[in-house]
Write a structure and sequence with these properties.
It is globular, with a radius of gyration of 16 Å. It has a single domain, classed as Beta-clip-like. It is of the alpha+beta class. The mean pLDDT is about 90. The structure holds zinc ion. The site of zinc ion (ZN) has 6 residues, from loops.
């Protein structure tokens, strides 16, 4: 069992996922999300490639692609069990449980992608309300309306 409380292993959602090796209480820090903080928007990512670039607050991006960041394996879910929270004093983002998580559960959070980014990133999270695209929760109703409209035309 990992001392850190998480391990990376194949995920039913996508590629490698991040899994709890023990239970976490709601509000508990699961793991640090390491990487460079960038003040300028990163180059557009390659469609179909995993992306570890996240806008964690307006105008602040986090590049979690480094191998020292096992938390980068955490997948997006439309019904996530954790959230990425920036400890502003320490300048360190953390994955924090927002509900109780049991051992062996996959750790997921909302990547918070824009509508443009979502077009290149299908979501296979399997949640009942999965919108089919990786997109920030507040944008999902608009995307859903858009997709309904698109379907009606064809
Ligand atoms: Zn989904």
């Amino acid at each position: 069992m990992s001392a850190t409380g998480t391990e990376s292993k194949p995920s039913p959602i996508s590629g490698l996922g991040l899994f709890a090796t023990r239970a976490f209480a709601a509000g508990e820090r699961i793991t640090a999300y390491r990487g460079a903080l960038l003040k300028t928007p990163p180059a557009v990512c390659t469609p179909g490639q995993p992306t570890y670039l996240l806008e964690i607050s307006p105008g602040l991006w986090l590049d979690g692609s480094t191998p020292e960041n096992p938390a980068r394996h955490a997948n997006h879910s439309c019904l996530p069990n954790s959230e990425l929270i920036l400890d502003t004093a320490a300048g360190q983002p953390w994955l924090v449980a927002f509900r109780a998580i049991v051992a062996n559960e996959e750790i997921t959070f909302d990547y918070g992608f824009s509508l443009a980014e979502s077009l290149f990133h299908p979501c296979k999270c399997g949640a009942k309300d999965c919108v089919g695209r990786i997109i920030a929760a507040p944008l999902r109703p608009a995307l859903r309306r858009h997709l309904r409209f698109s379907r009606r035309r064809d």
